[in-house]
Amino acid sequence: MRGHAMALAVAVFFAGVATNDPPLPIVEGVAAQETVDVDLVKRGVKLARRSGCATCHSLDGSRRPGPTWKGLYGQKRALANGQEVVADEAYLRRAIVNPDAEIAQGFPKGMMPKDFTRKLSEEKLRAIIVLIKSVR
């Protein structure tokens, strides 16, 4: 039941973003050893939609102006400067709070708004990170 509720919550993420895009029921959960807080994922969905994240980030691996969130968490991430990092919680936090510090390879600098630190409380930031972690 938890997985069903989470998949539904994340599918709602893109509902209405583009009229020709169907909802994307693709979330299967985070790593088996982790407990998923479905309510926090749902909150992350609402926050990400309100903040405009769905405009640039996909959940299904499709190309948009920003990197997809599908399968991002825990994976190695190539950066524009030639370095490589693991997309762990610390990386996700840095990417949201200081988006131009570590640019993902293949994406331009300056695309993401820089005012998220004023818009997102620690609790809201955590909800979006949990959402990103849940997109498999």
Topology readout:
Elements: H1 2-11, H2 38-51, H3 53-56, E1 76-78, E2 84-86, H4 89-97, H5 116-119, H6 122-134
Antiparallel strand pairs: 1-2
Helix pairs in contact: 1-2, 2-6, 4-6
Structural overview:
It is a single chain. With 136 residues, this protein is mostly helical. The protein has one domain: Cytochrome Bc1 Complex, Chain D, domain 2 (Orthogonal Bundle), CATH 1.10.760. It has six helices and two strands. It has a two-stranded antiparallel sheet with strand order 1-2. β1 and β2 form a beta hairpin. About 21% of the residues have low confidence.
What is the compact description of this entry?
By secondary structure, this protein is mostly helical. The protein is built from six helices and two strands, in the order αααββααα. The longest helix is centred in the first third of the chain and has 14 residues.
Question: What features would you highlight for this structure?
Answer:
mainly alpha; two-stranded antiparallel sheet; 4% strand; globular; 136 residues; 6 helices; 40% helix; Cytochrome Bc1 Complex, Chain D, domain 2; 2 strands
Order of helices and strands: HHHEEHHH
Task: Return the CATH architecture.
Answer: Orthogonal Bundle
SS strand fraction: under 5%
Mean pLDDT: 80
Please state the overall shape, judged from the principal axes of the Cα atoms: globular
* Computed Rg: 14 Å
Largest sheet: 2 strands, antiparallel
Helix percentage: 25-40%
- Strand pairing plus helix content: what structural class? mainly alpha
Number of domain modules: 1
Low-confidence segments: 4-9, 11-33
Counting DSSP H or I runs of 4 or more residues, the number of helices is 6
Alpha-carbon distance between the two ends: 17 Å
**Beta strand count:** 2
Q: What is the topology, as strand order, of the major beta sheet?
A: 1-2
CATH topology: Cytochrome Bc1 Complex, Chain D, domain 2
